[in-house]
Amino acid sequence: MGGDWFETIAEAERRAEKRLPRSVALAVRAGSERGLTLADNVAAFGELGFAPHMAGLSAKREQATVVMGQEISMPVLISPTGVQAIHPDGELAVARAAAARGTAMGLSSFASKPIEEIVAANPQTFLQVYWSGTREKMVQRLHRAKAAGAVGLIVTLDWSFVHARDWGSPFIPERIDRKAVLHYAPEVLRRPRWLAQWAKTKTLPDLSVPNWAGPGEPAPTFFGAYGEWMMTPPPTWDDVAWLCSQWEGPLVVKGITHPDDARAAVQAGAAAISVSNHGGNNLDGTPAAIRALPGVAEAVGGEIEILFDGGIRRGSDVVKAVALGARAVMLGRAALWGLAANGQAGVANVLEIMRAGITETLNAIDVASVRDLTPHDLVVPPGFARTPNRQSGSWLPAEP
Ligand SMILES: Cc1cc2nc3c(=O)[nH]c(=O)nc-3n(C[C@H](O)[C@H](O)[C@H](O)COP(=O)(O)O)c2cc1C
Questions:
Q1: Is 278 a catalytic site residue?
Q2: By CB count within 10 A, which of 57, 66, 179, 353 is most buried?
Q3: From the CB of 254, is ligand 1 less than 6 Å away?
Q4: The pTM is what?
């Protein structure tokens, strides 16, 4: 293992923060308002314990699983994130690393690389979309993704256009032009390795979003696309059902924390949901995603595949989420920090940290396969799960 290899996600984060210009590092950290949800997403995992066994353990450890019909080598996928122009190879590096490690990639609709290139690098690609623009435009995006060979669609529903952070938000330009270069110069000059990486490619970070464009149209800028999305009235559950019917393939509804919404996603015809609060970037004060998982699993666990994302930083976190009802988890920042720290090898490094951590944890708790995990493998403190206040109706909150 070379000197660029890191042993934990915390170290990847440190290296990414050292390498990236401050504004870029802040864009990756993201979060919103007081950062309560951002912090709780990670901290809540620390409240969950294990009950290890010591002898007479099975030697078999199985991580492979199936998500939306895709066989993957471990219960870990790449979550769609929209700022991968932090590295010249961007989403391509992530797609290659995921493919080499036998897992799937969620490609953000704000991605900087065209979906055709990503599917060529990783045939297990899911396109992520928002409810944005006219139905005709949405259908065009789905057709393009289908034609490219995407094997699934992720529709992300949780976004309320929050934009303030107590620690300050980074300046993001419309495009990297002369004015933006001058603005960034002081912080970029303090990051010579990052600058050298881009200088080698003789290109500048591209802030356009090619997968948003209709056939024959130029790629809009990030803010052009964002504006269209902001101006689009939010979808109803009937709209989500319509999207499912248009896609004609497995669809994940991402951003579920409420058991009622989980039920509605089942009704709409989704193949899976992701229990997620957008990594704490959306409504601050939403409990950690892992605290919402038990309630959602209880409501729809038998009816739909449950994915999970938010705060996964080690293999033992993956085991905890799977034990509480997730089929697999998705990585947001961990993959971005790996990408920033060491490109494709950095993302592969992150996935290997997860794989090793899952095996070590399964060894200790004596579970032969991730498919056999249950809440009984955990020590869950009273009051850990957070579920909406509701006195009546068919759903009752319960501890795992
Ligand atoms: C910088 C950044 C950009 C993101 N962009 C998107 C996006 O374009 N689409 C989406 O569905 N989720 C997006 N997310 C949310 C992630 O897919 C995921 O839900 C979240 O990051 C998981 O939390 P984690 O970062 O703690 O792993 C983004 C997250 C971050 C940190």
A1: yes
A2: 353
A3: yes
A4: 0.96
